[in-house]
């Protein structure tokens, strides 16, 4: 019998093509419960999750990030929703904790038939000159800044697994 955790880890892909279907409240509840169950340093749970389903807000963030990065295209890859994680970046492990929570969301989403792609590019909207406006738009708690985002939706396509680099491992004997 297969191991469902290892199978989900192996099958997850960064999905860059989505159907128009909305992510349901029940699906968000599953993803956010899983995220909250992620480990964090000293159990500080330093994250805040801002869930965005309004396409106009995603478009506004995309436009600002695109302008600041001088690049075109949709950084959300047409996903109907994205979860933005913010934290107090001065806290030593907060960003790592947010990364762990993000991968937890990715695996939980895959397990219920949703696709995700973790996104660093939105950072350009939050670190630009209109950063405060976007912090407030997404209701980041005071003192928090953007950590990472994850687009979520029903996959319209997939991709090959990335090659695993064997030389990234050393057993110290
Ligand atoms: C911290 C982080 C930031 C990322 N930012 C982006 C991004 O802004 N846009 C994007 O399309 N993919 C982004 N990715 C996805 C990576 O490109 C992807 O994980 C990598 O190519 C491996 O592919 P896989 O996830 O399908 O295994 C990001 C991944 C991580 C972990």
Verbal overview:
- The structure is a single chain.
- The protein has 173 residues and is an alpha+beta fold.
- It contains six helices and four strands.
- Helices cover 37% and strands 15% of the residues.
- 32% of the residues are buried.
- The model has no long low-confidence stretch (mean pLDDT 97).
- The site of flavin mononucleotide has 11 residues, from strand 3.
Largest sheet: 4 strands, antiparallel
Number of helices: 6
Bound molecules: flavin mononucleotide
End-to-end span in angstroms?
A: 34 Å
How many strands in all?
4
Secondary-structure element pattern, one letter each: HHEHEHEHHE
What ranges have pLDDT less than 50 throughout 5 or more consecutive residues? none
Task: Output the structural class.
Answer: alpha+beta
Mean pLDDT, all residues: 97
What percent of the residues sit in helical stretches (DSSP H or I)? 25-40%
C-alpha Rg (nearest Å)? 17 Å
Strand order of the largest sheet: 1-2-4-3
Q: What is the strand content?
A: 15-25%
Shape: globular
């Amino acid at each position: 019998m297969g191991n469902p955790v290892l199978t989900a880890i192996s099958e997850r892909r960064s999905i860059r093509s989505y159907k128009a279907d909305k992510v349901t409240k029940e699906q968000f509840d599953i993803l956010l419960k899983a995220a909250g169950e992620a480990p964090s340093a000293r159990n500080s749970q330093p994250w805040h999750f801002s869930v965005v389903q309004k396409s106009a807000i995603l478009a506004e963030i995309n436009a600002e990030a695109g302008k600041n990065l001088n690049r075109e295209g949709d950084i959300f890859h047409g996903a109907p929703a994205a979860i933005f994680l913010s934290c107090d970046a001065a806290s030593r492990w907060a960003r790592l904790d947010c990364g762990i929570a993000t991968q937890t969301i990715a695996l939980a989403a895959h397990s219920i038939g949703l696709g995700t792609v973790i996104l660093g590019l939105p950072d350009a909207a939050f670190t630009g000159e209109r950063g405060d406006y976007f912090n407030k738009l997404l209701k980041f708690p005071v003192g928090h800044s953007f950590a990472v985002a994850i687009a979520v939706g029903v996959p319209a396509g997939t991709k090959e697994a990335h090659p695993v680099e064997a030389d990234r491992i050393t057993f110290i004997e």
